[in-house]
UniProtKB/TrEMBL annotation:
Recognizes and hydrolyzes the peptide bond at the C-terminal Gly of ubiquitin. Involved in the processing of poly-ubiquitin precursors as well as that of ubiquitinated proteins. This is Ubiquitin carboxyl-terminal hydrolase. Zn(2+) binds at residues 184, 187, 204, 217. PANTHER family: UBIQUITIN CARBOXYL-TERMINAL HYDROLASE, UBIQUITIN CARBOXYL-TERMINAL HYDROLASE 14. Keywords: Hydrolase, Metal-binding, Protease, Repeat, Thiol protease, Ubl conjugation pathway, Zinc, Zinc-finger. Residues 160-270 form the UBP-type domain. GO terms for molecular function: cysteine-type deubiquitinase activity; zinc ion binding. Its EC number is 3.4.19.12. The keyword Repeat applies. GO terms for biological process: cell communication; protein deubiquitination; proteolysis; signaling.
Length: 810
């Protein structure tokens, strides 16, 4: 009978010594959320370096025939009761000076295991073949792929030197700043004060989203004067690098290499000053250190934990709450639950997966579904065996690292540790799911969210045109004029004015927010709107048409997006501080589009001569200026057309980024000048993202066209062209079923829906703050805040950012 060592020697050819470029998984099973701390430990395939839990390592052997594994098992170390808790000094996790999670420490044990008999040999051991010892040592020393893919150190971006600091102009107006006793020049604020480094004005900082902070006087002063830099009083000490300098035009904290000189201009001896205020980064650190769960949600009620299938929390990987909140709601739908949990086992998904299951979206969705819905990982966390009471209200949750890596592969922003927009992530996620199920639309769960929208254009001639498109979300404006508490709002405005005259702000208890019924938001979607400069093929002239919208199908799950982020005058983004009164049951049957009605006459098709006359031509002035700079005339014409004649700068930017295009010297095609076609060919998901920022759809389409489909550049284009309008390009021809998206195969039914979940957001922007999900599970509302899961005693139904409704079939 062969000995364990003989078995190992006979399989040495299946043992590989990892190269530096190999990805080594040793912290998490690739088909489950088992770790070295799990009861069975973790098995690393010494051929592929993939990791498997005890229940799943046999599947890998059956699929690959790889027999040799490194088994890693972690067991708890006893922790001294008097271990001190260190206060962090850096906004970071897992680095010196960062957050101390006070996690239990573990010790690791290793062995070599040979399948299928699970024969084990101890490691380390001098008796093991040298190749095995070298291979295992390389695995243990190497940084795990999980670690590489998730930056464990969460550190604020390094501050850059401000472009405005080098040649800052300072006004000698006789101002001398005292070493203490400061007060805002426009109100009574004595904290959060900023010294403008141009004119020496001392003014209070911005008001926070929750009502705290200053009265915005410092930023208002910048808008009035354009003076760019300010330093926070109370943060100036002998260590000038620690001073909080803010650049308004650059909209971030910066370094001022000449700060000593700029302070001396106003008589400030920085070496004598003491620190009395927190910097912006320290405030952020303090808010993270003292995360006030009760203040953010549920009005301070104590959380009653929930455990079991469907109540598994998701570990925050670093600003990943947008992903956690969205996926909790998604996997509460029947369509995704069936596709990736009920009808697909982990083993079936693994057998169908490619050689590396960590990069397969289907495998990672099945893994995530089973992790969330099986209940296996939804158990109370026990940090100390003898201190069960302190841990009874917590669960460890599961970290969606591999899923995040796969879903972010085609979207660079989601692969970062920065906060993201939950709406943008939801749309990207559904797009990836649709692509992965492209060959089997009947299996595609994303279809349960998809529906058709039809726009009806009524021309003054009495004729109509219909245009169809498909979407996953219904994005709704919030008509503040429809607020139901107008009298209370008037009284609050009066109180706010009184407080302002006293240099104060209303307390949180005194703040009154508009209450707008959801019905009013839905009505605004269907309400008629004017389309200026509409080219009528019946009148053969530009005129004003009336557009109305309706749904051609009702999805299984209706997602409503509330446009809480809007643009104020001067293109300043603002979050609407508003409540939406959302009923548990809604009926949108009246929103169904009826299509072409008896007696209606379609607008005639666009004649070729009319199409030719409406073709966008290059602006001669733009072309001439570009040619004078030395650019080719044909290239200049293309640039002007491709940027919709937006301006010389936009055209030049397009030129510089397309000089190497293979078709740059080709003649201008007819489609190049057909702006209507160009506007209709942009990615609808990108249009929806810009709409969510508060931009009009026609402007969003034109901006995306001018920027080549880059959302960030499109946003800059809109800000740079505040008077831009795409209405002149909306020469909508009558649609035909052949040229429009087909919604015949989409789910459809009655228009009555039940509220089943919502994602709420706290913060001044969708790219900062915090996302939380509330879900109705079997008639009982639950709150999902990353890995915290509990009973929701007072779900904030009026504070949602995304509302998820399930269609009632009865």
């Amino acid at each position: 009978m062969a000995t364990p060592m003989d078995l190992l020697r006979s399989n040495l050819s299946r043992v590989r010594i990892p190269e530096p470029t190999n990805r080594i998984y040793k912290q998490e099973c690739c088909v489950s959320f088992d770790t070295p701390r799990s009861e069975g430990g973790l098995y690393i395939d010494m051929t592929t370096f993939l990791a498997f839990g005890k229940e799943y390592v046999g599947w890998n052997y059956e699929k690959t025939g790889n027999p040799v594994y490194l088994h890693i098992k972690q067991t708890k170390k006893p922790v001294p009761e008097d271990r001190p808790s260190k206060k962090p000094t850096l906004l970071a996790i897992g680095v010196d000076g960062g957050f101390d999670n006070n996690e239990t420490e573990y010790e690791e044990s290793y062995s070599i295991v040979i399948l299928p008999a699970h024969v084990a040999l101890p490691f380390p051991s001098v008796e093991l073949p040298e190749k095995v010892r070298l291979a295992v040592d390389a695995v243990l020393i190497a940084e795990g792929a999980e670690r590489k893919e998730q930056v464990a150190a969460w550190v604020a971006d390094k501050k850059q030197v401000s472009a405005y600091a080098m040649n800052l102009q300072q006004i000698d107006n006789g101002v001398t700043i005292p070493p203490s006793g400061w007060k805002c020049a426009r109100c009574d604020q004595t904290e959060n004060l900023w010294l403008n480094l141009t004119d020496g004005m001392i003014l209070c900082g911005r008001r926070n989203w929750d009502g705290t902070g200053g009265n915005n006087h410092a930023v208002e002063h910048y808008k009035e004067t354009g003076y760019p830099l300010a330093v926070k009083l109370g943060t100036i000490t002998a260590d000038l690098e620690g001073a909080d300098v803010f650049s308004y035009p650059e909209d971030e904290s910066v370094l001022d290499p000449h700060l000593a000189q700029h302070l001396a201009f106003f008589g400030i001896d920085f070496s004598a000053l003491q620190k009395t205020e927190m910097t912006t980064a320290e405030k952020e650190l303090d808010q993270n250190t003292n995360f006030d769960w009760n203040r953010i949600q549920e009005s301070g009620k104590e959380l009653e934990p929930l455990y079991g299938p469907g109540y598994t929390g998701l570990v925050n990987l670093g600003n990943s709450c947008y992903l956690a909140a969205t996926m909790q709601v998604v996997f509460s739908t029947q369509s995704f639950c069936s596709r990736y949990f009920v009808n697909q086992s982990l083993k079936a998904a693994f057998e169908r997966a490619p050689a590396d299951p960590t990069i397969d979206l289907n495998m990672q969705l099945v893994k995530l579904a089973h992790g969330l819905l099986s209940g296996k990982y939804s158990v109370p966390a026990m940090k100390e065996e003898d201190n069960a009471d302190s841990a009874k209200d917590k669960q460890e949750g599961i970290p969606p690292r591999m899923f995040k890596t796969v879903i972010a592969a085609s979207h660079p922003e989601f692969s970062t540790m920065r906060q993201q927009d939950a709406l943008e992530f939801f749309l990207h996620f559904l797009d990836q799911v649709e692509r992965s199920n492209g060959g089997n639309p009947e299996l595609d769960p994303s279809r349960s969210f998809k529906f058709g929208i039809e726009d009806r254009i009524l021309c003054p001639s009495g004729r109509v045109a219909y245009n169809k498109r498909l979407d996953y979300i219904l994005s709704l404006n919030i008509p503040l004029h429809e607020a139901t508490n107008k009298e209370e709002l008037k009284a609050f405005d009066k109180l706010k004015a009184e407080r302002a005259s006293e240099g104060k702000a209303p307390s949180n208890d005194e703040i009154v927010r508009p209450r707008v019924p959801l019905e009013a938001c839905l009505a605004s979607f269907s309400a008629p709107e004017e389309v200026q400069d509409f080219y009528s093929t019946a009148l053969k002239a530009k005129t004003t048409a009336i557009k109305t919208a309706g749904l051609t199908s009702f999805p299984d799950y209706l997602v409503l997006h509330m446009r809480k982020f809007v643009m104020e005058a001067g293109w300043v983004p603002k979050k609407l501080d508003v409540y939406i009164d959302v009923p548990d049951i809604i009926d949108i049957s009246h929103m169904r589009s009826k299509g072409l009605q008896p007696g209606e006459e379609l607008l005639p098709e666009v004649p070729e001569d009319a199409a030719e006359s409406n073709k966008l031509m290059a602006n001669e002035e733009i072309v001439a200026q570009l040619v004078s700079m030395g650019f080719n005339h044909l290239h200049c014409e293309k640039a002007a057309i491709r940027t919709s004649n937006a301006g010389v700068e936009e055209a030049m930017n397009w030129l510089l980024s397309h000089m190497d295009d293979a078709d740059i010297n080709d003649p201008i095609s007819e489609d190049a000048g057909n702006q209507g076609n160009a506007l209709s060919n942009v990615d609808q998901a990108q249009v929806d993202t810009l709409i969510s920022f508060g931009f009009q759809e026609d402007i969003a389409r034109k901006a995306l066209k001018a920027s080549g489909g880059d959302i960030e550049k499109a946003t800059d284009w809109i800000f740079s062209n505040p008077d831009a309008s795409a209405s002149s390009d909306m020469d909508i021809a009558p649609s035909s079923s052949a040229s429009n998206p087909s919604d015949a195969s989409l789910p459809d039914g009655a228009g009555k829906y039940r509220l089943m979940g919502l994602v709420s957001h706290m913060g001044t922007s969708t790219h900062c703050g915090h996302y939380v999900a509330h879900i109705d599970k079997d008639g009982k509302w639950a709150i999902f805040n990353d890995k915290k899961v509990g009973v929701s005693k007072n779900p904030p139904k009026d504070m949602g950012y995304l509302y998820f409704f399930e269609r009632l079939n009865s």
